[in-house]
Amino acid sequence: MRPDTPLPWINYLGSEEFFGIVSNTAAGYSFFRDARLRRLTRYRYNNAPLDLGGRYLYVRDDETGDYWSPSSQPTRGALDEYRCRHGLGYTVIGSQRDRIEVETLYLVPLGQTLELWRTRVVNQRPEPARLSLFGAVEFCLWDAADDATNFQRNLSVGEVEIEDGVVFHTSEYRERRNHFAYFACSGPVVGFDTQREAFLGPYRGWDRPVAVEEGRCRGSVAHGWAPCGVQHVRVELDPCESREVVFLLGYAENPPEAKFDPPGSGRVDKRRVRPVLERYLEPRSAEIALDELRTRWGELLAALQVRTPSVHADRMVNVWNQYQCMVTFNLSRSASLFESGVGRGMGFRDSNQDLLGFVHLVPERARARILDLAATQLPSGGAYHQYQPLTKRGNDAIGSGFNDDPLWLILAVAAYAKETGDLSILQEPVPYDGRPGTETPLYEHLRRALGYTLDRLGPHGLPLIGRADWNDCLNLNCFSETPGESFQTAANREGGAAESIFIGGLFALAARELAGIARRLGDPEQAELAEAAGRRIADAVRRHGWDGEWFRRAYDYDGAPVGAAENEEGRIYVEPQGMCVLGGIGLDDGLAARALASVRTHLATPHGIVLLQPAYSRYRVELGEISSYPPGYKENGGVFCHTNPWIMIAESLLGDGDAAFDYYLRINPSAREDLSDVHRCEPYVYAQMIAGKDAPTHGEAKNSWLTGAAAWNLVAVTQWILGIRPDFDGLRVDPCLPAEWDGFAAERRFRGALYRILVRKPPGARARASCLLVDGERVEGTLVPPAPAGSTVDVVAELVPVESELPAGTGEQPVPLPG
Ligand code: BGC
Ligand code: NOJ
């Protein structure tokens, strides 16, 4: 293995309150809950190399003075061996140089607000080794945005305390903060530094600290400038001897009224944190914490395990796709190597969709999230585009008036209700705009979400788009001519009536889900109202949204069609082809099949389905940001991985398992591993985008990790292709598999019971289930009724061949993956 992957390949530590980003060279930063406001360690963005620094570890041979970083960075000196293993919530990086083997385990113990690095040093030399180990972090002065810009203040406010060999970062603690960070080491510590320049030396960087070079810290105490934590340990090892050293980076809070010890002294009260330090500086704690993490993840992932003929499906479904769903649920779009952690809070639309891939893992957390999201909804039924995780208040900082936003809440609640059977959530009192006293049951929030669209219909009877819909960059009311102006917040031009066919499809889907909820709540009247509204919008889509061979995308400010054959560029978009079919539009009259055939003809590439064709070659003020991207990138014709699963699901709805699975594999990260020199991002998580066919770098992925692609791909493959789909009244088993498969096996935890599912299929044929054997009893149809919690249920589905009902055009020869 080599450390110079095409791009940094990262992992996340922590899944509750304390988070760290860790790359394959141990670079990255850590934060408590909010990546902007409670940043623990400093990170310099867009650096060269991209992931320079964050967790600094140096080994020094005290005989020769030779020193290196066992994770390659920051010194980037030669290593004789190197390996990195990213696991679920932990990372291990090991290397050897000059017969000194060093392996470091990085993790955040469950329930703790700290990360530990357990470093094991082994002397493989035939003679004794005298070594020094330096561990270091550079503290961020809490607000990462301010930290990176407001130097006239920040270079003077840095403070630390040093006690019993532990470095406490206490900037601003003297005034309005009651939290602090610390960096500790199991020792034996022979020296420390807390002022960056003292440790590095003038005109030096983290790659060549003078203190490491000379094998001696300065004992510096930071007053202003750049507080850091450095711990120096000496290790003497006989041949074959090994030693473990633990470094801890932690976050702690004290009650605001009792934060000093002694009271009024200005010194941090450390009484609460001392027992934590004691516990985790004990090297055995790391092993215990790792075991606990393994057990926890084992339990989580046991909710859904499959064994299929495809190693790529198994790998992603069983481990990495679910893991990525946890990360997107936790972090929305805040902190990755592509999201700075300073810009965005939790997206309303994003979080509602992230939940679709997460709800089976920890339903209680999904429930709490739904209530948080709904509490930011506006009385009109509309939504803020995002909210801040620390305050849970909505904010307009990245724009508002995205008219699709509220509808996603209905999808999230339906997914929760189907997964858990818990309808009580609909009766929960939830405020609007976070204002106490405005509470209504959640159910009413959903009705208002639907009403919000119905109150905003345009001349074709289609939903008005507002600032944008799912496609943030299709800004039909924006008309921005000012360089650098944000498309997300620029004042919109009044008076037009730009409409979205995508929202039409989404509305049809949401209306059906709300009707399903209403029926189970014993409110058939509301169910009929929702269904009637759904039919009405679906009719408008059929009448004004059908272009002849595919669904149009929108009508612009002046009423001209977007995504229509008559357009010079951007003639066909993927989103409405997927979402209209998900909304059930065109399933009974052949439009759906024709739309999907058009996707295959115009949008499918070996690297996935591009968002539109032809890409816009010049800026079009009436379309907005979408045309600001060079052709083939991002929304302008990139493979936007979030949208591909909609087409997979649509293909499944039409019964074409070959097409669905073919699309699935094209963007499956594991299936793309052999293309890593092209793909470049991590081969274990989805990226938001893969450059489209109009781009010179076709096939290159960007923006990995924090993307709705995680949740939707998991939904597409597990619920539609494998067909294991929670429904209001039980668990559906209705696979739509590739013809060549002979079946698969799965285990699914559902409402407290375990379902052991075996699907058998005649290989070479298209086949569907028409009945099931549930614990040996024949059940007509594909719905397994819920079993009592704690029970185990055996489900067998013998698929029976079906005559293809597919019109020519779909299900053609799959385009092979390149390479
Ligand atoms: C990106 C979108 C993103 C939007 C909002 C755009 O530049 O292309 O993917 O959703 O900004 O921040
Ligand atoms: C990324 C955003 O987070 C998401 O909300 C949006 O739907 C897509 N970009 C497409 O624009």
Task: Summarize the topology.
Layout: E1 10-13, E2 18-23, E3 30-32, E4 39-41, E5 56-61, E6 67-68, E7 81-86, E8 90-97, E9 100-107, E10 114-123, E11 129-142, H1 144-147, H2 151-157, E12 160-163, E13 166-169, E14 179-185, E15 189-195, H3 196-200, H4 210-214, E16 227-237, E17 242-253, H5 274-281, H6 284-301, E18 304-307, H7 311-331, E19 346-347, H8 348-354, H9 363-374, E20 384-387, E21 394-400, H10 405-420, E22 429-432, E23 435-441, H11 442-454, E24 499-500, H12 501-520, H13 524-544, E25 554-555, E26 561-562, E27 572-573, H14 574-582, H15 591-603, E28 604-605, E29 608-609, E30 612-613, E31 639-640, H16 644-653, H17 657-667, H18 676-679, E32 687-690, E33 701-704, H19 709-721, E34 724-727, E35 730-733, E36 743-750, E37 753-760, E38 767-768, E39 771-774, E40 777-780, E41 783-784, E42 792-798, E43 800-801
Parallel strand pairs: 37-42
Antiparallel strand pairs: 1-2, 2-3, 4-11, 5-6, 5-11, 7-8, 8-9, 9-10, 10-17, 11-16, 12-13, 13-14, 14-17, 15-16, 18-36, 19-20, 20-21, 22-23, 24-25, 25-26, 27-30, 28-29, 31-32, 32-33, 34-35, 35-41, 36-37, 38-43, 39-40, 39-42
Helix pairs in contact: 7-19, 8-10, 9-10, 10-11, 10-12, 11-12, 12-13, 12-14, 14-15, 14-16, 16-17, 16-19, 17-19
This protein binds beta-D-glucopyranose and 1-deoxynojirimycin (NOJ).
